[in-house]
TrEMBL record:
One annotated GO molecular function: ATP-dependent peptidase activity
Natural source organism: Pelosinus propionicus DSM 13327
CC cofactor note: Binds 1 zinc ion per subunit.
Role summary: Acts as a processive, ATP-dependent zinc metallopeptidase for both cytoplasmic and membrane proteins. Plays a role in the quality control of integral membrane proteins.
Name the record gives this protein: ATP-dependent zinc metalloprotease FtsH
């Protein structure tokens, strides 16, 4: 059933009930009663004088008709019943026809008799609809109301309010250009992506960027969060989407922004657990349908933000939908400085405040955390009753923000050094070993997932077949970080444990799945469902202890060889290792091109 329909009939039911008793108690009854009311002694007198034709005992009233006389027709009158135990006897004695009627309820008794008991029910009903965003019992336009509230708003935020988002800003400039001068695009026959997805960890400024895009383009901004779409009652989410798109189209050019889209856009299979979540599915389907029904040049740009792009339904990121993904990264040191400047520009800073230094020691802080840091410092200064904010306030604020964050301790110099060498170890091994994917990016900004740094490689083409030597090279790259630590610091660190895990898994598969060990031969040792597991725990009981020992020895040999390969490469290019590591420690993030540039300049 359609929801509008349901609330419609519910509203009318109430109106019908109200109208019934209003008419009964306020119009009908008073009309007949007040006109003809007489007092009890008049009634008794009339009864005694035999003037009465008929008597009807009607609860608290006695209605009677007077016999017609020469100058008067038969008239009705009524009297308020008094407690008269002799009444029936008197009536019998007088010989009039009398009967009783069930009393009709008065307004008062109606109210207390059943309206009040039902009141909690009405209240419940009211709050349920309010929760749905319907705004109370007169929500005959349920599902529409929320969208009414989000009239496309003009936003005053500009890119100058956003710092350290570099590439994302460049990509969004194009969208702004389109919103401002759509005719330039249509003249060229160019189509812009309908949907732009901002992806990045929490607090990196995705919401802010979306607002700034609307602000720069000077177009209306429709803001909605994914969770406000998903409602308890079937149909509302979908109705809301429909309504939103209708309104936006009227205001084009404009931006629709769906914040935290993962609330509706989660992969459908993953939410369809027991009972499923069909409401979320309906909403998502409606969103997809609306996006498809949109002409690419309608002037409406749909933006969305998510912290978890990987859990989104693949249908959402298909061409014609959110086909442009913009990564919003944690800020690098210059970015952090920009953000700190933005958030302190209205603050009276003491002369000792060194924002450059603050930017340097806040690696891993998001934009939101930096904003929070500036605010904390101001609060501390206010508490001390001083007029300017000093560096000491900032230092204390860092401690506070960090304490509230765990793990995000600004990394010490020594640790940053280690992480730099580790990552460059991976990168250079990849650079010098043939058959490995080119390095795309090296970073020592701690990630939200807990890694202190990462090296990203980017395959040049899809790989369907991988040779044994390539696999060995990959393992060497995985162990390259550890190898660099061994060379430079003469010891490995815990930072390499994930590398070891991946390398070991790879080596294990080479031997047990791909038959890449001469000693063990072209035999599959892994069981069918997963990779080879150690005997005992649901492993292959048919493997002899000797075979298991051999497998372990072979894994060991492969990993040893790979680590030696990496060590050899890094020792050979030790000067490059030092150079790149120093550069990375300074810059925090370097691109594959930077790496190539440094390496070629040194050889
Ligand atoms: P997200 O949507 O990515 O979680 P928000 O845009 O909601 O992050 O950021 C929250 C607040 O943090 C913003 O309102 C702003 O004050 C601050 N902030 C976050 N990133 C930045 C940035 N890059 N530049 C300036 N301020 C930022
Ligand atoms: Mg946000
Ligand atoms: Zn590593």
């Amino acid at each position: 059933m359609d929801n509008k329909q349901r609330s419609f009939s519910a509203g009318y039911l109430i109106i019908a009930i109200l109208a019934t008793w209003l008419f009964n108690d306020l119009v009908y009854k008073p009309f007949i009663i007040r006109e003809t009311e007489v007092s009890y002694n008049v009634f008794l007198q009339d009864l005694k004088e035999n003037k009465i034709n008929e008597v009807i005992l009607n609860g608290d009233r006695i209605v009677f008709t007077l016999k017609a006389t020469e100058n008067q027709k038969e008239t009705a009158a009524n009297v308020v019943a008094v407690t008269d135990p002799d009444l029936v006897e008197r009536l019998i004695a007088s010989g009039v026809a009398f009967s009783a009627q069930a009393p009709t309820k008065s307004l008062f008794s109606t109210l207390f008799g059943w309206i009040l008991p039902l009141l909690p029910l009405f209240l419940l009903w009211y709050f349920i609809f309010k929760r749905m965003g319907g705004g109370g019992p007169n929500a005959m336009s349920l599902g529409k109301s929320k969208a009414h509230e989000i009239n496309g708003e003009m936003i005053g935020i500009k890119f100058s309010d956003v710092g350290g988002v570099g590439e994302a800003e460049v990509e969004l400039r194009e969208i702004i250009e389109y919103l401002k001068y759509p005719e330039n695009f249509s003249k060229m026959g160019a189509k812009l992506p309908k949907g732009v997805l901002l992806a990045g960890s929490p607090g990196t400024g995705k919401t802010l960027l979306a607002k700034a895009t609307a602000g720069e383009a000077e177009v209306p901004f429709f803001f909605l969060t994914g969770s406000s779409f998903v409602e308890m009652f079937v149909g509302v989410g979908a109705a809301r989407v429909r309504d939103l798109f209708e309104q936006a189209q009227k205001k084009a050019p404009c931006i629709i922004f769906i914040d935290e889209i993962d609330a509706i856009g989660q992969a459908r299979t993953s939410v369809a657990g027991i009972g499923g979540n069909s409401e979320q599915e309906n909403t998502l389907n409606q969103l997809l349908a609306e996006m498809d029904g949109f002409a690419a040049n309608s002037g409406v740009v749909i933006m969305a933000a998510t912290n978890r792009p990987e859990i989104l339904d693949p249908a959402l990121i298909r061409p014609g939908r959110f086909d442009r993904q913009i990564q919003v990264n944690l800020p690098t040191e210059p970015g952090r400085l920009e953000i700190l400047i933005i958030h302190t520009r209205n603050m009276p800073l003491g002369s000792d405040v060194n924002l450059e230094r603050l930017a340097k020691i806040t690696a891993g802080f998001s934009g939101a955390e930096l904003a929070n840091l500036a605010n904390e410092a101001a609060l501390l200064a206010i508490r001390k009753g001083i007029k300017t904010i000093s560096m000491a306030d900032f230092d204390l604020a860092i401690e506070r923000v960090v304490a509230g964050l765990q793990r995000k301790t600004p990394l010490s110099d020594a640790i940053r050094s280690k992480v730099s060498y580790h990552e460059v170890g991976h990168a250079l091994t990849a650079y010098y070993l043939p058959g490995t994917d080119p390095v795309h990016k090296i970073s020592i900004i701690p990630t939200a997932k807990g890694a202190l740094g990462y090296t990203m490689q980017m395959p040049e083409e899809d790989r369907y077949l991988i040779g044994e030597n390539e696999l060995k090279a990959r393992i060497a790259v995985m162990l390259g970080g550890r190898a660099a630590e061994l060379i430079v610091f003469q010891e490995a660190s815990t930072g390499a444990s994930n590398d070891l895990e991946r390398a070991t898994e790879m080596a294990r598969r080479m031997i047990t799945e791909f038959g890449m060990s001469l000693k063990l031969g072209p035999v599959r040792y892994a069981n069918t469902t997963g990779s080879y597991l150690r005997s005992g725990v649901s492993g292959r009981e048919d493997l002899s202890p000797a075979t298991i020992l051999h497998i372990d020895q072979e894994i060991h040999r492969l990993l040893d060889e790979a680590q030696n390969t990496a060590k050899q490469i890094l020792t050979e290019h030790i000067a490059v290792l030092h150079e790149v590591a120093t550069f990375l420690k300074e810059k925090e993030v370097i691109s594959g091109d930077d790496l190539t540039r440094i390496v070629t300049s040194m050889s």
